[in-house]
Amino acid sequence: MAQEYALASDARVLTSPVIRDGVIYVAQEDGTLNIIENSGVNGYGTAVWPRYRRDNNGSAALGSSTAVTPSETVYLPTVTASAPEESGGPVEGAFIAFHLEVSRMNRVNTLWPLLERFMALADQYGVKVTLQFSAPWAEYVYQNNLLDTVRAWEANGHEIALHHHGPTHKFFDGYTDDPTAVRADGWYATEGMYLGSMDDLMTFLAPLSQQGMTSAGMSDEATDWPAGVLYFATDSGETPSADDLLSTPVEVTHNGYPAVEIYNAGYLIEHFGNAAVDLDDVETALQTAASGEYLGLVFNDETFEKDFNQIEPLFQLLQQYGVTIETVSDLMDRR
Ligand SMILES: [Zn+2]
């Protein structure tokens, strides 16, 4: 569909329209700023449209309010939505990247039973999870003789992947290839300790996976992207966004290594605020996904500690839409 709005000047349009809370902003070369209220158009969820993304995909949806009748001329945000494909699922693929976050050992101890419960539920629905292990979770596995459990998950089709917080992350895991970036000024929850290089981290995590780690979720990829890791489940911008629920793979280079990025949005991760998605957002995405788009979800401890009862309905919704959750590496290998 298209909608036309008169602009205040004849000058060329300078930038793409920006939509926020149903208001469209269009700047022109002579400095005119057009503000079109009550358009009935919104960005995806609560996100501003268009949002900077490395895959150049914008997304927007016609809101529930009625659009005002336009008067004359040109320049419009074009809003498109594709119908679900006739055969197969409505999305190209779907994944859950589970961030096993950098935490203290007693915290991991509290969370581990929830992880086991979650994995059992995933198996019940044939959901294949991408479990991103950070160093403390690996430490916990080794200390508690849980390696067989983790290896059984991998043998059962789940992915054992990397989770890394580099020196610019508030919860630094202690590993980096750029020790000069480590801060010790007290801003860090993890006190800026340096434990070793990325090689050291990968060696420490290696026993967890018998297939080798091929995907990651991490910060500081410019300096710390490890050799051998191929796929990056991440945010499209600098911060999490609900808009990242749907995306297409992007080829990038990090730290000199080629990699493929695919984006994901936090499922019921409260501290993300408006950037988190819920069950309704997932259903909307399943209904509006364009051809070739993947649905990417992030889970972390907030998801299953506060909202465990919202996980099974998600699995049921995906089942209802005929969508299978696969691992990041399986999906990207096949693309
Ligand atoms: Zn993390």
Give a brief rundown of this model:
This protein is of the alpha/beta class. 25% of the residues lie in helices and 20% in strands.
Task: Describe what you observe in this structure.
By secondary structure, the protein is α/β, with parallel strands linked by helices. The protein folds into two domains: 1-81, no CATH class; 93-334, 7-stranded beta/alpha barrel (Alpha-Beta Barrel). Helix content is 25%, strand content 20%. The protein has nine helices and 15 strands. The chain has helices at 105-124, 135-143, 147-155, 198-205, 221-224, 279-288, 301-306, 311-320, 328-334, and strands at 18-20, 23-27, 33-36, 41-43, 60-62, 93-100, 130-133, 159-164, 215-218, 231-234, 246-247, 250-254, 257-263, 265-266, 294-299. The strands form three sheets. Strands 6, 7, 8, 9, 10, 11, 12, 13, 14 and 15 form a ten-stranded mixed beta sheet that branches. Helix 6 (279-288) packs parallel to helix 8 (311-320). The longest helix has 20 residues, at 105-124. It starts with 17 loop residues before the first strand and ends with a helix. Mean pLDDT is 87; it is low at 63-88. Bound molecules: zinc ion (ZN). Zinc ion is lined by residues 99, 101, 163, 165. Residues 99, 101, 163, 165 line the site of zinc ion (ZN).
Return the string of H and E elements.
Answer: EEEEEEHEHHEHEHEEEEEHEHHH
Largest sheet: 10 strands, mixed
Q: Kindly give the count of domains.
A: 2
- In the CATH hierarchy, the architecture of the largest domain is Alpha-Beta Barrel
Query: What integer value in Å does the Rg equal?
Result: 22 Å
Query: Residue ranges: pLDDT <50 for 5 or more in a row?
Result: 63-88
CA-CA gap between termini: 30 Å
Helicity level, as a percent range? 10-25%
Write out the distinct hetero groups bound to the structure: zinc ion
Structural category is alpha/beta
Count of individual helical segments:
9
Shape: globular
- Relative strand content: 15-25%
